[in-house]
Design goal:
Largest sheet: 7 strands, mixed
Distance between the termini: 54 Å
CATH superfamily of the largest domain: Type I PLP-dependent aspartate aminotransferase-like (Major domain)
Helix content: 40-55%
Strand content: 5-15%
Strand order of the largest sheet: 2-8-7-6-5-3-4
Bound molecules: pyridoxal-5'-phosphate
CATH class of the largest domain: Alpha Beta
CATH architecture of the largest domain: 3-Layer(aba) Sandwich
Length: 406
């Protein structure tokens, strides 16, 4: 047998797949579900999922689409009404001018991000990923055979990378920067001034593109949402990603989009055309209705997330050893938990890192969280605050009791 044949017998899976990490959020949610199936009362704070129902008017539009027999393949980049509605949204909310041929609708913002990374990044090119980052960014870059370069913000600056840090990180091999604002996992929000300074750096490096993930736009507790694409000198090199999952509580519908220069949008359409084609026809009709309905339902949900953030911040104040910055948006808290590293659990095991701590909290407090490691911040733990108030209160009561055992 040849060497390749022997290897194939050991694992038929590709090197690409074997090099990829499983999504840590999905893995923790799976562990939590396993415990729950054994009858334990697990509070799941690992998933980034709104606990609200999709607003009724959006569901009604989907029912209507079904009744209209709207069940056929759609154009790969999305139905014309939705692409047009997204242009209107960009003008209304972000003062951005796009034409429908610059919009690509995808199966979630996740696919929009993957389309952009796979369409832009060549093997060996560097992608500067503002860190802490959303778990999938690094893996998408690796899938494109690019080199992820984490750019770590400081705790003092709410983990936001600065323009001077960015300038220092850019090399002749840099192709792309990627970030989310509001940020998952930190909840940090870039101001217009901060993005302006970043735009000035990018203006000096014409080979560098930017992937701005604005999926949490509507969950912003500080007011203004700023877009990198607002800066004229670089707007042609910015790909703006957004979607319906978080702002409209539509995670299961799988509907997201990007806006970019027409040739980049066409590239993403080509990529998507070979992988999934146009996303669900019914979901797209629901998306048109969602946007036409404006922001009222999203704003009501954001008010609830803000109340829950405050409730959780109040609860963690009482827990020694957790250092929790105040999130300005999204629905997570991301405390520094390194004070617990090296401590001994009641079963005699040592808490070596945040993965051990997340497992300890799952098994002792029946609360699932996610280790900061997968987000590029191994000293942190991420808790979702998108749960009912009473669940949050109970979860942090249990966490306090469990942490006191260490
Ligand atoms: C920062 C960020 N971007 C993108 C996504 C993916 O969104 P969607 O569910 O629309 O694919 C998520 C979901 O958790 C996210 O947190």
């Amino acid at each position: 047998m040849s060497d390749t044949a022997t290897l194939a017998a050991v694992s038929p899976l590709s090197d690409r797949l074997l090099a990829m990490n499983e999504s840590a959020t999905i893995a923790m949610a799976k562990k939590g579900r396993e415990l729950a199936a054994k009858g334990f009362d697990v509070i799941n704070l690992s998933f980034g999922e709104p606990d609200f129902q999709t607003p009724q008017y959006i569901k009604d539009a989907a029912k209507q689409a079904l009744d209209d027999g709207y069940t056929f393949y759609t154009p790969v980049p999305g139905i014309p009404e939705l692409r047009q509605a997204i242009c209107v949204k960009f003008k209304r909310d972000n003062n951005l001018d796009f034409l429908p041929n610059q919009i690509v609708v995808s199966t979630g913002a996740k696919q929009a991000l993957a389309n952009a990374v796979l369409s832009l990044v060549n093997p060996g090119e560097e992608v500067i990923v503002f860190s802490p980052y959303w778990v999938s960014y690094e893996e998408m870059v690796k899938l494109a055979e690019g080199v992820p370069v984490p750019l770590v913000g400081t705790l003092e600056n709410n983990y936001k990378a600065t323009a001077s840090q960015l300038e220092a990180a850019i090399t002749p091999r840099t192709k792309l920067i990627m970030y989310s604002s509001p940020c998952n996992p930190t909840g940090a929000v870039f101001s217009r001034e901060e993005l302006g300074a970043i735009a000035e750096v990018l203006a000096r490096h014409p080979q560098v593109y930017a992937l701005a993930d604005e999926i949490y736009e509507y969950i912003n507790f500080v007011g203004e949402h700023a877009s990198l694409a607002n800066f004229d000198e670089i707007k042609d090199r910015v790909i703006t990603v957004n979607g319906f999952s978080k702002g409209y509580a539509m995670t299961g519908w799988r509907l997201g989009y990007l806006a970019a220069r027409a040739d980049i949008a066409a590239a993403c359409e080509k990529m998507q055309g070979q992988v999934t084609s146009g996303t669900c026809s019914i979901a797209q009709r629901a998306g048109v209705a969602a946007l036409a309905g404006g922001r009222a339902s999203s704003d009501a949900m954001a008010a609830a997330y803000r109340r829950r953030r405050d409730l959780v911040l109040e609860a963690v104040k009482d827990i020694p050893g957790l250092n929790t910055p105040t999130p300005s948006g999204a629905f997570y808290i991301f405390p520094v938990v390194s004070a617990f590293f090296g401590r001994t659990a009641p079963d005699g095991s040592t808490i070596r890192d945040s993965s051990d701590l997340a497992l300890f909290l799952l098994n002792d407090a029946y609360v699932s969280s996610v280790s900061g490691e997968a987000f590029g911040a191994p000293e942190c733990l991420r808790f979702s605050t998108a749960a009912a108030d009473e669940k949050l209160v109970e979860a942090f009561r249990r966490i306090k009791v469990s942490l006191a055992k260490l």
